[in-house]
From TrEMBL:
One of its GO terms (biological process) is carbohydrate metabolic process. The keyword Cytoplasm does not apply. This is Alpha-glucosidase. InterPro entries: DUF5110, Gal_mutarotase_sf_dom, GH, Glyco_hydro_31_AS, Glyco_hydro_31_C, Glyco_hydro_31_N_dom, Glyco_hydro_31_TIM, Glyco_hydro_b. GO terms for molecular function: carbohydrate binding; hydrolase activity, hydrolyzing O-glycosyl compounds. It holds the Pfam family DUF5110. Residues 686-754 form the DUF5110 domain. Residues 584-670 form the Glycosyl hydrolase family 31 C-terminal domain. PROSITE patterns: GLYCOSYL_HYDROL_F31_1. The lineage of its organism: Bacteria, Bacillati, Bacillota, Bacilli, Bacillales. Residues 16-177 form the Glycoside hydrolase family 31 N-terminal domain. Residues 220-574 form the Glycoside hydrolase family 31 TIM barrel domain. Keywords: Glycosidase, Hydrolase.
């Protein structure tokens, strides 16, 4: 083995490999069996790193430049050490192996060790002391559940201030006791499959996620419109979609997307419009003329026509091609998805076969031809309306792979959504070449981020508790590789007679947070009924949930924060570029950036939006203030007042219903733009560089066409900005690192906070003139304006300014 060692363990043998200087793979299999890699693994062709091997009677040691793998021969066990010889992680005395065919691993832990990840768990940010299950499932009847719509068998351990990651690459239902049983160890096991796990060395959490996504795949760059705001409801008919879109424009609340839930289909049959959308071409024209993109829901289950119904060609074709999941006797498995209350049956595509994925991709053409820009994969755990099978397929149902191997649903369940996302991504590549995909998935597995653009946390409830949960759910989803994550703003599900509805206060506080979810959508349940045809407030007691339904105050609050998202689109777009390139989180728990500050390890009601903005939302009913922790390692500025604070302290912040407490990390540059009502409405001609500078700040600004795959062929710009305090002056400079895209930017407006009136502003021999107002500055080629009331200095700089701009105090 050129990248590790193989050990004889009697009936078993172990392979311990160094895939890179920081990633180790451990496999224990029966003699003669091949090592395992699930469909979640994207990269298998690793170039062996430089490392040494030493061996004696008791152990074998593999040593790279940053990781030591110390292997004890008998009893078998592994200890990982960093380059300084500190133990990062080691097997506990219970060891590793199989019990009754089930793989297990025990690890030692210390009392200062915390655990994060696993996807959209509802039990908290830090999982220490928790028992976790990885099994994608409809979380009925209540939203606080051991199992959720999407789970990932990956977690990050943080021991003190040093992090590591472990991916248990097993597709069966798996379980994790994260020091719940004992403070001295944690362990994980699965119901079947092989013992395979990857160990990833940090020491920074961001390094872990970067390497994890090297292994499992980086997310694709989404189109800019998908980063905007979206509106949806289960119940919208064509008339509702058109009315809602028109109202958003009339009320000047920015929005890019509307979503078509299952009511768009012809009697719940995928790929065909039904009578509730009588003129899809007309709808598409109205939406496109108003700057909207629409996303169509597609459920994996294919409905079997009821007796007397006309032929459903996808069902006929799939049956002829033998593409369905099977019963153990080889017949097609018949389950049920939609509609409720009708004894209809459904078949389920076997996405583990390439032939099925090809067929699925082909059938998206009529959907795209009618104008859909995105695809929403729902019900893909997979869901099946069978309580005896816990809302999924029976575990003994059969999937056949391309090589003829038969796999049970017990093994295939957790990767069903992953393989469907692969097929949907193929639909874009086949039918919309060079157009960036937008694929929203409810369920996912390790590596799904390389196919599906986004995920959301499924059918949440209109409860304050669910608003609170959304923050740590999205943080943990991000830590498992899916950076574009969100929650239904205002809550989806209702229980009106128990007070579980979106009140004006709840919606206002939720839209403040939701405006900064990486995937931002208001989605609600109207029981499949058209909101225009039913008085939901009377017949269902649920109420509509568009922002203007809650009165003028909440409408204004919604407009304020959604507009802020659109102002921050250059900042958000660059955060997505970092997620695409490095796996970086957009929605970050504080511990992600500030793991050296122990006080951040359990904070789950604050988050970083990108690298520089910290949100501390109000998440309790009736509250108009809260305590805010400002992490050590940075100084902070109150976004609304400009007041400056040292990090490492807790402050108290008053926040009326219209205020989301926001803090800016000092020494930051935040690129912004004028508000648009939708992406692409106005060209970006003036880039605002919102700068909070005490010493020095820098920003590498990325730009491309925001819609095609041309960026993968080098068509993009990167410009490095820096702002530095230099004794008696502040210095601005730019470095056009890469310029392969025809940008519309003509100027920059450097916006300096907590500034003083300058004595002069110049670039070499060119003296910038003082403008009398911001409007006057906007008309000038260059110049400056000082707002003495706000203590903000605006300096307008031509994009082709080749000299450093100096601002003298």
């Amino acid at each position: 083995m050129d990248n590790g060692v193989k050990l004889n363990l009697g009936e078993m043998e172990s392979y311990i490999r160094l895939l890179s200087s920081d990633i180790s793979k451990v496999s224990i299999v029966k003699k003669g069996e091949k090592e395992f890699a699930s469909v979640g693994i994207a990269k298998t062709d690793w170039k062996a790193p430089k490392f040494t091997v030493t061996e004696d009677d008791k152990k074998i040691v593999l040593k790279s430049d940053s990781l030591t793998v110390d292997i004890n021969k008998s009893p078998f066990g592994i200890k990982y050490l960093d380059k300084d010889g500190n133990v990062i992680n080691e097997d506990a005395e219970q060891g590793v192996g199989y019990e009754n065919g089930k793989p297990y691993v025990f690890k030692k832990t210390e009392k200062n060790e915390d655990f994060y990840g696993f996807g959209q768990k509802t039990t908290g940010l830090n999982h220490r002391g928790q028992k976790i299950g990885v099994w994608n499932r409809e979380n009925l009847p209540e939203p606080i559940s051991k199992y959720t719509f999407s789970s990932v068998p990956f977690f990050i351990g943080l021991k003190g201030d040093k992090a590591y990651g472990i991916l248990f690459d097993n597709t069966y239902r798996s379980y994790y006791d994260m020091a719940a049983e004992s403070d001295d160890y944690y362990y994980f096991w699965a119901d079947g499959g092989k013992l395979t796990y990857y160990f990833i060395n940090g020491p920074e959490m961001k390094d872990i996620v970067n390497r994890y996504t090297d292994l499992t795949g980086k997310m694709q760059m989404p189109p800019e419109w998908a980063m905007g705001f979206h509106q949806s409801a289960w119940g919208y008919h064509q008339k509702d979609i058109e009315q809602v879109a028109q109202t958003y424009r009339q009320k000047n609340i920015p929005i890019d997307g509307v979503m078509l839930d299952i009511e768009w289909m012809d009697d719940y049959k995928n790929f065909y419009f039904g009578e509730k959308f009588p003129d899809p071409d007309g709808m598409n024209k109205k939406l496109k003329d108003a700057g909207f993109h629409y996303t169509s829901i597609i459920d994996p289950a294919i409905r079997v026509p009821d007796p007397g119904q006309p032929e459903y060609i996808p069902y006929t074709e799939g049956t002829q091609k033998d593409l369905w999941v099977k019963n153990p006797d080889g017949t097609n498995y018949l389950g049920k998805v939609w509609p409720w209350g009708v004894p209809s049956k459904s078949v389920f595509p076997n996405f583990m076969k390439q032939e099925t994925r090809d067929w699925w991709a082909k059938w998206h053409k009529p959907v795209f031809d009618k104008g859909a820009d995105g695809i929403w994969n729902d019900m893909n755990e997979p869901a099946n309306f069978s309580t005896v099978d816990y809302w999924t397929l029976p575990l003994d149902r059969i999937f056949e792979t391309d090589n003829g191997e038969k796999v049970t649903h017990e093994e295939a369940h957790n990767v069903y959504a992953h393989t469907e996302a692969q097929a949907t991504d193929q639909a874009f590549k086949t039918n919309k070449p060079n157009v960036r995909p937008f694929i929203l998935t409810r369920a996912s597995f390790t590596g799904t981020q390389r196919y599906a653009t986004a995920t959301w946390t499924g059918d949440n409830w209109s409860r304050w508790e669910m608003l609170r949960i959304s923050i740590f759910q999205d943080a943990n989803v991000g830590l498992t590789g899916m950076a574009m994550v969100g929650n239904d703003i205002g809550g989806f599900a209702k229980k009106p007679y128990e007070g579980v509805v979106a009140t004006p206060e709840l919606f206002a506080r939720w839209v403040q947070v939701g405006a900064f979810y990486p995937f931002s959508r208001d989605h609600y349940n109207n029981d499949g009924k058209s909101p225009m045809e039913t008085d939901a407030a009377q017949s269902l007691k649920w109420g509509r949930q568009e922002p203007w339904q809650f009165g003028k105050e909440v409408e204004d609050i919604s407009r304020k924060y959604i507009s802020m998202r659109y102002e921050l689109m250059p900042y958000l777009y660059n955060a997505f570029k970092d997620a695409h390139e490095k796996g970086n989180l957009i929605f970050q728990p504080l511990v992600y950036q500030f793991q050296q500050d122990q006080k951040t390890h359990d904070i789950q009601d604050q988050f970083m939006f990108g690298q520089s903005l910290m949100m501390a939302p109000i998440v309790y009913q009736g509250a108009t203030s809260r305590d805010v922790y400002l992490p050590a390692g940075a100084d902070w500025v109150d976004y609304w007042t400009g007041q400056e604070y040292k990090g490492g302290q807790t402050i108290h912040k008053d926040a009326d219903l219209g205020t989301l407490p926001i803090y800016v990390k000092q020494d930051s540059i935040i690129p912004r733009r004028e508000v648009q009502q939708h992406s692409g409405e106005k060209k970006l001609t003036n880039l605002i560089l919102d700068s909070y500078v005490k010493d020095s700040a820098s920003y590498s600004f990325y730009e491309d066409d925001a819609k095609t795959e041309d960026y993968t062929r080098g068509e993009f710009n990167i410009t490095d900005f820096s702002v530095d305090q230099k004794g008696n002056h502040i210095e601005f400079s730019q470095n056009k690192q890469t310029q392969n895209y025809a940008s519309d930017i003509q100027s920059y407006t450097l916006k300096l906070h907590n500034a003083t009136a300058p004595k002069k502003v110049e670039a070499a021999n060119d003296k910038y003139a003082e403008a009398a107002s911001l409007d006057e500055l906007g008309k000038a080629a260059n110049g400056y304006f000082f707002d003495s009331a706000e203590k903000v200095l605006y300096v307008k700089i031509p994009v082709n300014e080749s000299h450093k701009v100096k601002i003298f105090n």
